Amino acid sequence: MNKYNVARQSVLEAGSLIKNMMQEDIQVDIKSSASDFVTNVDKQVEKFLVDTINNSFPNQNYLTEENTRDFIGLENLWIIDPIDGTTNFVYKKRDFCISLAYYEKGMPVFGLVYDVMNNELFEAKTGNGAFLNGEKLALLDQKRPLSESVISGDVYRPNFFKATPSEIKRQIIAHRFLGSGALEICHVAANMSQAYVFNSLKVWDCAAAVIILTEVGGTFLMGTQVNQLVFDQQGHLFIGAANSLIMKGIETWL
Amino acid sequence: MNKYNVARQSVLEAGSLIKNMMQEDIQVDIKSSASDFVTNVDKQVEKFLVDTINNSFPNQNYLTEENTRDFIGLENLWIIDPIDGTTNFVYKKRDFCISLAYYEKGMPVFGLVYDVMNNELFEAKTGNGAFLNGEKLALLDQKRPLSESVISGDVYRPNFFKATPSEIKRQIIAHRFLGSGALEICHVAANMSQAYVFNSLKVWDCAAAVIILTEVGGTFLMGTQVNQLVFDQQGHLFIGAANSLIMKGIETWL
Q1: Which sites bind Mg(2+) (chains A, B) (predicted)?
Q2: Residue A174 to residue B87, Cβ atoms within 8 A
């Protein structure tokens, strides 16, 4: 099998693994704060994905949330979040996903985002469009204004935007917050909302989803760079939008 | 058939009606503001529900979002929201529901909340527990503190709470916002979050869901009254919580 097929099959198998592990007790560890979790499931699922890829393709690089392997370099780079939306996984038992992306020398090759409990697989290969459960996603309207947009993410997070909640509310239709960056970016790609914003997103939260988003005409800002990932382990300002008109509107809030 | 069975069957049929109408164009009318929609689907689905109930049980009272019948009195009162989460319906094509409740002389008899696209039916008869797709929901933990809670709703809405977003964030695990009050209250009942807050909820948004919530031990505040609906057409402060400990914590934000 080629890399794409191995990736796709292992993501689906990891979804089954998660569902099976949910029948047992989930052990929660605290990371940096009480709302920053990691579970035994995150760790085991990441190990399963890395081992499966490594068995088929040795000598790859990895950049992963649970740091199963050290991050060495950009050649043949697999970027993995075994569970994006761990709070949702622990508390809500839905609205979390597996995110897996493959980049070569910093350039996107393919991305997979699997909403396990909804059984929705978002996938894209660079240059071939994006798909949801095998159906091609439509290109996003490039003329849609901010005033016709639903914005998801932690919109009113303290010290994120200089614009006040009142100022932001006046400019948009509504805000929503699902709590999984990868899924919320994919939902922009699927035209369920028009932008996703977060003050501190990490590369494994968005590496796969931005491939899906840009394949349908969307755009993103990470840190200070447009349509370019930051390949490190830090959190960065992130805005993903259906078009640059909406992006520019959101940037005025900063 | 008795009232419960007629209600349950007509809610499921209304779900099919909505799915069929989604294949056609949805016409959007603006109500009080650009983010306050009503569609042809809301109106037709409400008329279907009222007509179906009226055919089996004449001389009932109705209190409904689209005002198909005038609200006269509390005897044999059906409280209906044909689509709760109209913005989600129009923009996201999911995460909306049908809410139907039946009250006699102001006392709850039964409530049904149907998440159409997820095919999840929440239902409760007073005194008989609450069910999700036929499975009985567990009683909620009455000792769970606010610090172990996910809060949904428009938590940071301007001029809603006196507490700042920073103060609120420190006291909880996370906040989420789905955009359908009825569904978000049912999700508290199903232990997917621990409270739902909104500054201005109307009785048709919560009449069915609060029956489901209180059947599993939850509690709610509407306006100034605990566990008591306000039967009018105005918006009221609403807090629904898994227990009174969490409720009291949220009340300190007011």
Answers
A1: 65, 81, 83-84, 205
A2: yes
Q: What is the pLDDT of residues A80-133, one digit of tens each?
A: 999 999 999 999 999 999 999 999 999 999 999 999 999 999 999 999 999 999
Q: For residue A195, which amino acid is it?
A: A
Is there a contact between A236 and A230 (Cβ–Cβ < 8 Å)? Answer: yes
Q: Which CATH number applies to A3-136: 2.40.50.140, 3.30.540.10, 3.40.50.620, 3.40.50.2300?
A: 3.30.540.10
Cα Rg for chain A, rounded, in angstroms? 17
Encoded tokens for A242: 């259906």
- Which ipTM value was assigned to this complex? 0.93
**Selected residue of B33, B155, B173 to mutate for chain A interface (largest A Cβ count, 10 A):** B173
Q: Tokens 């350039």 appear where?
A: A107
Q: What is the pLDDT of residues B99-135, one digit of tens each?
A: 999 999 999 999 999 999 999 999 999 999 999 999 9
Domain B146-251 has CATH 3.40.190.80: yes
Which parts of A31-127 are beta strand (E)? 37-39, 61-64, 77-84, 97-104, 107-115, 120-125
Chain B contact set for A158 (CB, 8 A): 164-166, 169
* Dihedral angle over CA of B176, B181, B184, B185, nearest 10: 130
